[in-house]
Amino acid sequence: MAIYVVMQPPAGDNKARDAIFVRDSFTWLGFLAAPLWFAWHRLWIEAALTFVVMAILSVTGEKLGLEGAGSLLSLLVSLYVGFEGQALRIASLRRRGWREWGVVEAGNLGDAETRQALEAGEEGEEAAPMPRIVPDASLARPPQTGMALGLTHTPGRP
């Protein structure tokens, strides 16, 4: 099962159907094409920064004659985006005023949307208050007096 973080739009645009579901997992597209993945999700600053860092690492590796080292460092940047890309996306939504509604565990995106809709529907309805349970004193057992050793004592039996 996958974990989805449900982000709701800012207060003025509060509609349940406008929620964004961000899967909390490794993102392969972010690993393979980090700047493009950031640009696709409109994370412009992160896309530009990633592109610049990867370009600097490649150029520095070529200038120093360490092409392998530059490539490995670029691979580390890609790994970081693969592992932390979704968290950066959630942080960007928070900066834009989106609120975290909660977390939903589901097999796929459709199931996650269904579960969120069912849980959000329950919040809208006011639940009936739980009945107050008052114990009947006449049915209570008298307190046991005496000594008990070990596990031999059974409450309610002499």
Estimated structural class: alpha+beta
Percentage beta strand: 5-15%
What is the overall silhouette? elongated
Strand segment count = 3
Listing every helix as H and every strand as E from the N terminus to the C terminus, the arrangement reads: EEHHHHEH
Structure report:
The protein has 158 residues and is α+β, with helices and mostly antiparallel strands. 49% of the residues lie in helices and 12% in strands. It is built from 5 helices and 3 strands. A 3-stranded antiparallel β-sheet has the order 2-1-3, with helices on both faces. Helix 2 (34-40) packs antiparallel against helix 3 and helix 3 packs antiparallel against helix 4. The two termini are 53 Å apart.
